[in-house]
Amino acid sequence: MIEFCLDTGDLEMVKKTVGLYPVSCFSMNPSIAVNCLKGTGRSFLENAREIRKVIGSDTPFYLEAMGDTAEEMLEDARAIKAEIPGNTLVKIPACPEGYKAIRLLKKEGIGCSCTAIYDFNQAMLAALSGADCVAVYVSRLDNSGADGIETVAKIKRAFQIHGITGCMVSAASLKSPIYIEKAVLAGADNVTVDLPMLEQMAVHPMTEGTLKKFKDDWEGLFGEGVRVANM
Q1: Model confidence at 114, in pLDDT bands (50, 70, 90)?
Q2: Which residue among 81, 91, 156, 182 is the active-site one?
Q3: How far, CA to CA in Å, does 134 sit from each of 53, 79, 115, 128?
Q4: Contact 90, 65 (CB under 8 A)
Q5: How far does the chain reach from its first CA to its final CA, in angstroms?
Q6: Alpha carbon of 26 to those of 73, 93, 98: distances in Å?
Q7: If you average pLDDT over residues 64-76, what whole number do you get?
Q8: 191 in Cβ contact with 176 (< 8 Å)
Q9: Contacts with 169 (C-beta within 8 Å, 6 or more apart), sequence order
Q10: How many CA atoms lie within 13 A of 21 on its CB side?
Q11: N or C: which end of the chain has fewer CB within 10 A?
Q12: Cα–Cα distance for residue pair 5/120, rounded to 1 Å
């Protein structure tokens, strides 16, 4: 089953999305966190705790560890797990020290998503290191002249061929609803979204016209404001 993952650190956006849309998990990268927290006075962990309260303890919540070495990433990962309760997973970058960190965290029972993946080989190394998810930056790949969706499709095919079942393929850094459609059809298990993108996906001019016709016909017979519940 495809997962929609809300990629934001905006607490109000999280609250609104939870009330309206079928979002299965939540995530935040360092740049998103900085943009959302600038001027608020809240720390990264304080903000994450508030989001956890809104989404509940069972919902997957992906938070990024910082650090240049595997040891530094492990320290951050342990701090994240200690401070943010529930089903919290740590995002680790696709680099040599990151693959090492993923292997060590796996031994400690800490789930990881390998992030900032730009090619097939990085995804393979991440999956074989024990990552629970590989996050392919689709739009950034396209902007560099590569094909982000095809990269997602190749990784998914390879996972299926070789029986890699414990690692999801995430299509991340998506910039418009058409990318959601392409990523899902390419076999992505998880796609990142934000609230404006969900709002674009949720409506269609023809749907709005149809609903207006339904309402006009109904109220033409039964009266303005009448609904089934108050007949």
Answers
A1: very high
A2: 91
A3: 26, 22, 6, 11
A4: yes
A5: 40
A6: 20, 17, 21
A7: 97
A8: no
A9: 123, 133, 134, 136, 152, 155, 156, 159, 187, 188, 189, 190
A10: 24
A11: N
A12: 22
H helix or E strand, kind and range, residue 27: strand 25-28
Active site residue 91: yes
Question: Cβ distance 104 to 82 under 8 Å?
Answer: no
| Residue matched to tokens 């609230």 | 195
CB–CB of 23/60 below 8 Å? no
Are 102 and 135 in contact, with CB atoms under 8 Å apart? no
- pLDDT tens for 191-226 read 999 999 999 999 999 999 999 999 999 999 999 999
Q: What is the pTM of this model?
A: 0.93
Query: Rounded to the nearest 5°, which phi and psi values hold at 65?
Result: -85, 145
Closest CA to 183 of 161, 202, 204, 155: 155
Integer Rg of the chain from CA: 20
Give dist(CA 138, CA 33) in Å, integer: 20
H helices of the chain, in order, are 11-20, 30-37, 44-55, 70-83, 96-107, 120-129, 138-143, 148-161, 177-185, 195-202, 205-222
Q: Which amino acid is at 96?
A: P
Q: What is the pLDDT of residues 190-200, one digit of tens each?
A: 999 999 999 99
Task: Give the residue carrying structure tokens 């809104």.
Answer: 54
